[in-house]
């Protein structure tokens, strides 16, 4: 009888420890997702400049690479896909052909990608 009680208490303690570990892991994942989302949303605010095309091209490339790096860190598939979508959108900016029409079209598509990212972060 005493052996069963000891076994039951040990099992309960292990279950409690596993539950606590899972809670810590969940909190850690939430913190990671939050930090990734904050950085991704900051990067998603990329705005092209028609004044300096070379700088805009360099900034678009760097922003896209940074977003791709964040996507690789994201454990959540929906978030990873949303960040990659934003990276692709930033990268798709055709810098040599920046004109008001192309920038307007690109900005609308970027807004759609931003909304997808914001929803994945919610």
Distance between the termini: 51 Å
List the quaternary state of the chains. single chain
The count of helical stretches stands at: 4
E-strand count = 0
- Portion of residues in beta strands equals under 5%
Helix content: over 70%
Description of the molecule:
This protein is mainly alpha-helical and 122 residues long. 82% of the residues lie in helices and 0% in strands. It contains four helices and no strands. The chain starts with a helix and ends with a helix. The relative contact order is 0.13. The mean pLDDT is 82.
Topology:
Blueprint: H1 2-43, H2 53-73, H3 77-91, H4 100-121
Helix pairs in contact: 1-2, 1-4, 2-3, 3-4
List keywords for this structure.
mainly alpha, 4 helices, 122 residues
In short:
The chain is mainly alpha-helical. 82% of the residues lie in helices and 0% in strands. The model has no long low-confidence stretch (mean pLDDT 82).
